[in-house]
Amino acid sequence: MADPVPLTLTTDVVPFAIRTERLEVLLVGRSVDWRLPGGPIEPGEDLDVAARRHLAEQTGLCQVYLEQLYTFGQPGRAAGQRAVTVAYYALVPAGSLSGDPVPLADRTGWAMVDALPTLVLDHAKIVALARRRLASKLAYSTIVLQLMPERFTLSELQTVHETILGEPLDKRNFRKRILALDCIETTGEMAQRGGRRPARLFRAKHPGQVDFVK
Amino acid sequence: MADPVPLTLTTDVVPFAIRTERLEVLLVGRSVDWRLPGGPIEPGEDLDVAARRHLAEQTGLCQVYLEQLYTFGQPGRAAGQRAVTVAYYALVPAGSLSGDPVPLADRTGWAMVDALPTLVLDHAKIVALARRRLASKLAYSTIVLQLMPERFTLSELQTVHETILGEPLDKRNFRKRILALDCIETTGEMAQRGGRRPARLFRAKHPGQVDFVK
DNA sequence: TTGCAATAGTGTCAAATTGACACTAACATA
DNA sequence: TATGTTAGTGTCAATTTGACACTATTGCAA
Lengths: 214, 214
What we know:
homodimer; alpha+beta; 7-stranded mixed beta sheet; two-stranded antiparallel ribbon; 4 helices; DNA-binding
């Protein structure tokens, strides 16, 4: 059906997480420049599997939510060679970050999505597209739960929404809407943090599953 | 950044059009089986350009709306070899079909999307995904205009919606909604077809442009 | 010329949804 | 026990959505 075309086929992953009430991206550094975790797709390897593998190898992150974003192949995106990359984004639950990630290759670092360092190639464009996709998916899916720890309060969930959307939300309307989606349930436990009224802890009804709503 | 991986990188395009009040897909035939138009991406060729080129070469269609859909790369989707395809869908305006297309390679044929013949590889899956994407985009964009001829009546536009969604719509509510979008305008002309009241002809305010709405 | 068949075109009202808005409750600490 | 801090809760107006039926205009046939 087709002649083989010599080229470089890679995946790149935009790993998002909420850290200290900011949306951040995990980058890996090779020599001077920062880039997204990713790399070549092996023969016989599924695209999703390759993305997941590079993410795990380079950052230690595994069991995250992963979704294909877009495939970039402008000639000239890589100097000299023909490079096509299948871009993904990953959502890292806040709870699964045990301090800083284990860098199995090079150094890694979280960067605020609004204040990225210079990235190689068109990686900044990839991050920008992923950010827009994530923000728009908040409106019509339960995807935000993939960024939450196993148990969380409604206030925490609201803060995550506000962080991603970049605008404050009304507390009562937010709670009404979220609870009406029927995607989270109370655990019966309370969050105990000093000096204020404890909040009820919730969890996703279907962890790992993203539903479309409305 | 990555070692070269030997593989076959292709594009496949799902060309949609409305024909006789049905959503149809243009297929090309090589020997016995039908497949989507597409083929290898040349070195130095942009992905979108490659998709557009194969579509034109194999079906004669050009100047259509084209959008990247998804990249498929399951090992085993092509027997023996490692085949990755960047899938697109194209929307063909009803007016631009001068009878049957000019087959520059092999034979071509339109097939109803609900009654496809057997397709090679996973092309049926690609069509199914494209159909879902198209249907969902109706709700929040002006994409449907890409399927319309230059001038069209509101009834024709409504029929196209109904065809894609597979359900009847209320005439008055439909017109209210479409006109509120402010994406079409009257031409001042009337459609003259025998035996009934003529309808006003409309055109897209921004042809070739797809806006997000709501 | 008149009637008929066929499609175009138009508005209202009830129901549901959205969005603005402010106070009390519970806890830790001083 | 007073204070600071966050959790938690309901109403009402405005807007949006969705159900619903009749008149208008044309070509053609009787």
